[in-house]
Structure formats: structure tokens, C-alpha cells
Amino acid sequence: MSNSAATNTATSWKDYLELTKPKVVLLILLTAVVGMYMAPVETVPIDVLIIATVGIGFASGGAAVVNHVVDQRIDAIMARTLKRPVATGKIDSKRAILFAVFLSVTSMVLLYVFINPLTAVLTFFGLVGYAFVYTMYLKRATPQNIVIGGLSGAIPPLLGWTAVDGQVHPHALLLVLIIFVWTPPHFWALAIFRRDEYAKAEIPMLPVTHGIAFTKLNIVLYTILLLFAAALPYLTGMSKGIYLISSTILGLIFLFYAIKLKNSDERRIAMDTFKYSINYLMLLFVALLVDRYLPVEIF
Ligand code: HEM
Ligand SMILES: CC(C)=CCC/C(C)=C/CC/C(C)=C/COP(=O)(O)OP(=O)(O)O
């Protein structure tokens, strides 16, 4: 063990689970599963559902483990992250890397052998994009880090879709676009709340480099863009009325939070906006499913 304080505490499977960022991965998997069920097929075979979900989950979790190893120095500086298992030394880098390799290799084998090479390759791009391009380079290089890096987090619906359909369908790309546009308001709301910690760790997040007022303006603009991006499934005929009504209501609530955040100095509103962003994405993807499978058509 590299850290002597850590040797006093036994490592449990919960520490390993924490390394995979399980709550984030769960939402990623929801978007991937919705991608599977939106693909133009009669049914999703149960083996594809299970193997692809495990494969995409292991790749996302593996990428998150690499993030803990690469970011251990800055994680130890920021209050939000200083108790993370690698940052404290509870799990040393070597074991974390072995765990990441296990998850990533298992994922690739599962997807390549039992699903299809296209899904394996696209998942590999997602993994490399987050674990290496974003975490190792972009995060420390530019305030647009999360905009570009957001592509990795946005890809899961496409992965789910290609797992059942084997093709990069334009409708799947709409779902990717929605998450891509959602990521900046999701993250910048939190970054406003945690601005001082990012400054202390010298990470060039937008509120650190360009100030809080400019970041708030960007959140409002991206939220407006999201309202349009989220209408595209209806406008292209992929989804119907139940989805349009849901996406419009969810989007207007998001915009309400963004405007409230822009017009207020209360830090709490930034955290409320961040939390809402997560509920927004979850409910939007549930709405896609309900709209598709509920045997009711309003328009
Ligand atoms: C580059 C893209 C992204 C960035 C920079 C980002 C940033 C963050 C950060 C820093 C947190 C930690 C909040 C905390 O610990 O208080 C967080 C939480 C979260 N993010 Fe994201 N995120 C991104 C993409 C995504 C994606 C694609 C999803 C799912 C589809 C997602 C879902 C979540 C969830 C569910 C949480 C809450 C986790 C918890 O409560 O422990 N994020 N995000
Ligand atoms: C294969 C595939 C689809 C991979 C998906 C990758 C993935 C888990 C994306 C989530 C992105 C995320 C949680 C970023 C957190 O930013 P951060 O790492 O800067 O936040 P932190 O300060 O909390 O570590």
C-alpha cells in the first residue's frame, strides 16, 4: 500500500464499486437500453439485452476507474472527491488499474464475440474518449473540456441501438445529440457550485476561466438549444405526441431552473439545477419508451 493511513482500513467490494461511478453508469445504461428498444426491430432478444448491458456497463465502469487513477492528485485536493478510494490510498493504483483492465477487456470480449464488432469498436471509442482524451488531456487543457469530452458520455444510446440493429441509424444519432447538448448545462451547474475547488485544483473549468456570469449565460443558451434538440425525435417522426409533450414540459422546467440560476446569486440554485439535470435526462429517456410502447396515440 502506498498510503500508510489506508492500511488500517480494510478494502471492501464497495470501494471497488465506488470506483466505477455506479450512479452515473446506471443512467448511462438506461440511455443504452432505451437505445436498444428504440431500434426498428420487433423485439430485443433477451441475450442481447443482458450481454450488451453488461458490456456497455463494464466499459463505462472501467473508464471511470481509470479516471480515479489519473485524477488521484486533483481528487485529493477537492472536498467533493477527497474521500475517493484511490485518492486516499485505500486502493492503490496498481489494483485499480488491474480492475479497470479486467472490466474493459471483459467488456470488449463480450461485445465483440456475442454482440457485434461495430458495437465493440464504438464502445472502445467511448472508453478511450472519457478515460484518456478527456481525463488525461482535455480536462486540464481547455474550458471546452466537457463539451468535447461529452461525446463519450453521449454515445451509449447509439451503442444500445447498434447492439440490436448493427447499424448507425440517424435516429440513434439524435439521441446522442440530445445527451451531447445536455452535458454542458449538467456539468456547468455543478461547476458553478464547486468553482473554488476547481480553481484550487487548477482545473480550467468554464466558471474558473470565464467567470460565473458567463457560465450562467452559457447554461441558459445550451438549455434553449436542448429544448430544440429534444424536439427532433418528434419532428423527424421517430416519436409521437406523448414524447413531445413530455420533452417540452421537461425542457421548460430545465429552462426555468437555468433562468432562475442566471438571475440569482444563491449557490443552492446551482445545485438544484444540477440535480434537476439528472432527473431531466432520466425522465426524457423514459418518455421515449412510454411514447413508443404505450398502446395509446394522442397525435
Ligand atoms: C463529460 C461529460 C460529463 C461530465 C463532465 C459530468 C460531470 C459530473 C460530475 C463532476 C458529477 C459529480 C457530482 C458530485 O459528485 O457531486 C456528475 C454526477 C452525475 N452525472 Fe455527470 N457528467 C458527465 C456526463 C454524464 C452522463 C453522460 C451521465 C449519464 C447519462 C451523467 C450522469 C450523472 C449522474 C447520474 C450523476 C450523479 C452521481 C451521484 O449522485 O453520485 N453524467 N457528473
Ligand atoms: C464506454 C463509455 C460509454 C464510457 C462512458 C464514460 C463515462 C463514465 C462518462 C461519464 C462522464 C463523467 C462522469 C464525467 C465526470 O467528469 P469528471 O471525471 O471530471 O468528474 P469527477 O471530478 O467527478 O471525477
From TrEMBL:
State the source organism's domain of life.
Bacteria
Membrane topology (UniProt): Multi-pass membrane protein
Q: Where in the cell is it found?
A: Cell membrane
Q: Which UniProt keywords apply?
A: Cell membrane, Heme biosynthesis, Membrane, Transferase, Transmembrane, Transmembrane helix
Mark the transmembrane ranges.
24-40, 46-70, 96-115, 121-138, 145-164, 170-193, 214-235, 241-259, 280-296
BP-aspect Gene Ontology terms: heme O biosynthetic process
Q: From the UniProt record, give the pathway where this protein acts.
A: Porphyrin-containing compound metabolism; heme O biosynthesis; heme O from protoheme: step 1/1
| Enzyme Commission number(s) | 2.5.1.141
Principal subcellular localization: membrane
Keyword Ribonucleoprotein belongs to the record: no
A cellular component annotation (GO) from this entry: plasma membrane
Q: Which reaction does it catalyse?
A: heme b + (2E,6E)-farnesyl diphosphate + H2O = Fe(II)-heme o + diphosphate
InterPro entries, from UniProt?
Protohaem_IX_farnesylTrfase, UbiA_prenyltransferase, UbiA_prenylTrfase_CS, UbiA_sf
Q: Residues of the signal sequence? A: none
The answer to whether keyword Transferase applies is: yes
Q: What class of enzyme is it?
A: transferase
Q: What more is known?
A: Carbon 2 of the heme B porphyrin ring is defined according to the Fischer nomenclature.
Q: Give the protein family.
A: Belongs to the UbiA prenyltransferase family. Protoheme IX farnesyltransferase subfamily.
What's the stated role of this polypeptide? Converts heme B (protoheme IX) to heme O by substitution of the vinyl group on carbon 2 of heme B porphyrin ring with a hydroxyethyl farnesyl side group.
The entry's protein name is Protoheme IX farnesyltransferase
Species per Swiss-Prot/TrEMBL record:
Aliikangiella coralliicola
